[in-house]
Design goal:
heterodimer, A: 606 residues, alpha+beta, 4 domains, 5-stranded antiparallel beta sheet, 5-stranded mixed beta sheet, 12% strand, elongated, B: 233 residues, alpha/beta, Rossmann fold, Arc Repressor Mutant, subunit A, 2 domains, 11 strands, 42% helix
Chain lengths: 606, 233
């Protein structure tokens, strides 16, 4: 269940949907907020239940107090005919009012909004909010009563509630949008870079951008957004919550810009998150690259580990370090001595001396290295010669006693007064010594060809002809067997550059092998074809036994498919075929497919 | 008639002894020596008619000994050596050896080769004299166009008409390599089509008749991937 959920949550489709939703919800929230801004609605109605308790009303009340005071006292002028409130004002020699009754009690009867000022003492209506109006104070004699009539307050409260009713769904939507967006962003941050198959971080194309560039890209994106918002936000409407055409256009632009910026910022943010998750945010930055390159460069100048194995290269490296440091110091001194010109001649002179010292001793070391190099080549050639000598000597040392054995066994067999059993023994000796002779001969052929000490005679030969000749040469043994040979050779000659005699041994050995180990009555297929400039020979046969070995195993020296048949051959046939093919410039491979044994030989055709 | 004297030079005494024994059975008189210098000494004081010579011997090696012998004698020399590379054989033969046998050898083959060399040397010495326009001689092979006789080291060998024609063609062009097609057209007088196997089988049959060891032919050679030739001697 968990893994199923994880699989779904890590699907690219799921992630894409989440991303698109974030963009839509966030854009919707911003556009809604801009709409609220445009229709000039008072947000305070959301937070304050009664209009009389609101900051808005407090300001209105405050304005009313000051208006009354200034209009009628300091700058007496015509009082507007219609006022939303009632007032009574009395100072030294001045008395004004717009109310029929101007007793304190009458004014205080408007409990929701009443203000009584009498020479520094303030009394408020019973239910009047004690907000900013209590700060009012004037020197001297002043009596001022202000009250908003109940009808006015009721009407205001009505509008107040109307606005609230209009605001609540919009604000609720905005908040919901933002919360869902935030949740989706958190989800995206969690799953980004993950795939359901494994626990590795998978990077996207954007992650190839260096980390600094990703971070810097926020600046133009957010700059565009804030610019657009500030440019477009001063178009308040006074038209009873209706939008004018400019505002509608602006809202569309805001939506578009917000969507684009959200997409850009989202991509950037997720990329940074992936890099943080993969712990490559720092490493994959220009700054890091820059410093690590410098670091590597400096390290490579002074890091002598590679050269410390050999004392000569170690000396070379130490000298190089001294040279670099000394040269650097000399350049430094040149600048220091700029203040005192006569001394400026010193660094160049020292530099010349340094170069002289550096080159002189380096040349000596190079000479020694060359000497060592020559010695090692000579050593190698010597060991090569020793290898050839070894093969020749061992060959001689094996063949000489074998010659005696074969000769004396032959002589023994010619003795007339041998007992019946002695004659049996002699025959066995004869057979075995001949087999030994074949093995020794094969062994040295193989040793010579694998060690590369074999004389080759490369000439242009026709591979097709060679196969036909080999088959003709082996006709007797083919006829003796119960097997048939099927050939599929091209009409035209197939010319290759190779050693015919060696290749004859190759095909002889392979066909011999096929004749020995094929199932009775089956066919051996020999095909020659040219594929892409390569002459490819395929020899296939059906084994008479289960081939429970790999192609590699059969190529191992002295291994034979059928271990019960240890009395014939040297077991080196295929090894010799492989080695001879290689020294003749071809490629040799074996394929085992069920009971089918397949040898594939290929040459570059000419 | 005196027994034919054969000199066996091999530093391995047991081998020399075995060869001596093998040849004694065949009614030859054998003198054994164990190095090149001894061989030269024996040659001066004895009427030797064939030499079996090892290459790797102390004091004077086989090849140097052979060069010395060849200064004044043309008796058959068969090299016996553990060196089995083609290049060793070619070197030995070009320095004057008549045959080259690699160790370990098959005793029967050794005896056969000794006999063949002796026949050529002793009884066919005058074959050159009887040779005329109608005979072709290549080494120990002799073909008479008139009598259609075919001799190997003086011994008549029966060839079928086709085999005879193949040998006649190849021997009259000894040393030249011919393709199966060319041989077929020449011998069968028919256009050749897919004849490699036919020709090869005939070549193999001829080889079995004329070669001491058909697996290592001395005269009739297959040039693998190219054709066939009679080695020039």
């Amino acid at each position: 269940m968990d893994t199923k959920l994880r699989n779904i949550s890590r699907k690219t489709a799921t992630k894409s949907i989440a991303f698109v939703m974030v963009v839509i919800l966030f854009t919707a929230a911003i556009v809604s907020a801009a709409y609220v801004d445009y229709i000039n609605i008072n947000l305070e109605s959301l937070f304050v239940n009664q209009y009389k308790d609101s900051e808005t009303f407090a300001n209105e009340f405050f304005d009313a107090i000051y208006d009354t005071y200034y209009f009628t006292n300091d700058f007496p002028r015509n009082i507007p005919d219609e006022l939303d409130y009632l007032y009574y004002l009395k100072t030294d020699g001045l008395e004004n009012t717009n109310s029929g009754i101007y007793t304190k009690e009458y004014f205080l009867s408007f409990e929701d909004a009443a203000f009584i000022y009498e020479n520094g003492n303030i009394v408020l209506g019973e239910n009047t909010a004690p907000s900013t109006i209590t700060r009012f104070y004037r020197e001297g004699n002043l009596i001022m009563y202000i009250a908003f009539p109940d009808e006015y307050m009721a009407e205001k409260q009505n509008v107040w509630e109307l606005e609230r009713d209009k605001l609540i769904p919009i604000v609720a939507t905005i908040i919901a949008n933002l919360i869902i967006s935030l949740a989706l962003i958190i989800y995206l941050i969690r799953v980004t870079g993950r795939k359901h198959e494994d626990e590795n971080i998978h990077y996207s194309w954007i992650d190839k951008v260096y980390s600094e560039l990703l971070l810097f890209a926020f600046i133009p994106a957010l700059g565009l957004w804030f610019g657009a918002m500030s440019e477009l936000s001063y178009y308040p409407s006074y038209n009873n919550y209706q939008l004018n055409s400019i505002q509608v256009r602006n809202l569309l632009i805001i939506g578009l810009v917000t969507a684009i910026v959200t997409i850009i910022c989202g991509i950037l943010l997720l990329s940074i998150v992936r890099k943080i998750k993969g712990k490559i945010l720092l490493r994959h930055s220009i700054t890091y690259k820059f410093f690590s390159t410098i670091n590597d460069f400096i390290k490579s100048l002074f890091d002598g580990r590679k050269f410390s194995k050999n004392s000569l290269t170690k000396t070379l490296h130490q000298r190089q370090v001294i040279f670099i440091v000394a040269s650097f110091l000399l350049v430094l001194f040149t600048f220091i001595f700029l203040t005192f010109p006569p001394l400026m001649i010193m660094p160049p002179i020292l530099e010349i001396a340094l170069i002289y010292w550096y080159i002189k001793y380096n040349n000596e070391t190079f000479g020694e290295i060359n000497k060592g190099f020559d010695e090692s080549i000579e050593e190698q050639m010597k060991s090569e010669r020793m290898k050839i000598d070894l093969i020749t000597n061992v060959s001689h040392d094996l063949k000489t006693p074998l010659t005696s054995i074969i000769s004396y066994v032959d002589l023994l067999s010619k003795e007339e007064d041998l007992s019946e059993s002695a004659r049996d023994y002699v025959n066995i000796l004869m057979e075995k010594s001949n087999r030994l002779k074949n093995i020794v001969s094969d062994l040295f052929d193989l040793a010579k060809s694998t060690s590369g000490n074999i004389n080759m005679n490369f000439e242009m030969i026709d591979l097709k002809k060679l196969i036909e000749q080999t088959l003709g040469d082996m006709e007797d043994s083919i006829e003796e067997s119960s097997l048939q040979i099927k050939t599929n050779l091209p009409e035209e000659p197939v010319n290759i550059l190779s050693d015919g005699k060696k290749l004859y041994r190759v095909f002889q050995n392979i066909i011999d092998n096929a004749l020995k180990y094929s199932l009775q009555g089956t066919r051996i297929f020999i095909e020659l074809e040219i594929v892409e400039g390569k002459a490819i020979v395929t020899i296939k046969n059906i084994a008479s036994y289960e081939m429970n070995f790999t192609p590699d195993e059969i190529m191992e020296r002295f291994t034979r498919g059928d271990k019960s048949r240890t009395t014939e051959g040297s077991g080196l046939g295929l090894s010799i075929a492989e080695s001879f093919t290689q020294v003749s410039g071809g490629k040799f491979s074996i394929d085992v497919d069920g009971d089918m044994f397949k040898v594939i030989i290929s040459f570059q055709s000419v | 008639m005196d027994k034919i004297k054969i000199l066996v030079a091999d530093d391995d005494k047991e081998i020399a002894k075995a060869i001596a024994k093998l040849l004694t059975i065949e009614n030859y008189e054998v003198i054994k020596v164990y190095n090149g210098l001894e061989a030269l000494d024996v040659l001066i004081s004895n009427n030797i008619q064939l030499i079996l010579l090892d290459i790797m011997m102390p004091k004077l090696d086989g090849l140097s000994t052979m060069l010395k012998i060849r200064e004044n004698k043309n008796i058959p020399i068969i090299i016996l050596s553990a060196k089995s590379e083609d290049s060793d054989k070619i070197l030995g033969l070009s320095m004057g050896a008549d045959d080259y046998i690699t160790k370990p050898f098959n005793p029967e083959e050794l005896v056969a080769r000794v006999k063949s060399q002796l026949r050529r040397y002793l009884f066919l010495g005058d074959m050159g004299n009887i040779s005329n326009d109608s005979t072709i001689v290549v080494g120990g092979l002799c073909l008479n166009k008139d009598s259609k006789d075919f001799l190997v080291d003086g011994e008549a060998v029966k060839l079928t008409p086709t085999e005879y024609k193949i040998m006649e063609f190849l021997m009259s062009n000894a040393g030249i390599v011919f393709s199966a097609e060319r041989i077929y057209e020449e011998v069968w007088q028919e256009p050749a089509y897919s004849v490699e196997n036919t020709v090869m089988v005939h070549i193999r049959r001829i080889r079995e008749k004329i070669e001491i060891n058909p697996k290592e032919p001395k005269y009739l050679k297959v040039v693998w991937g190219i054709g066939y030739k009679i080695e020039k001697h």
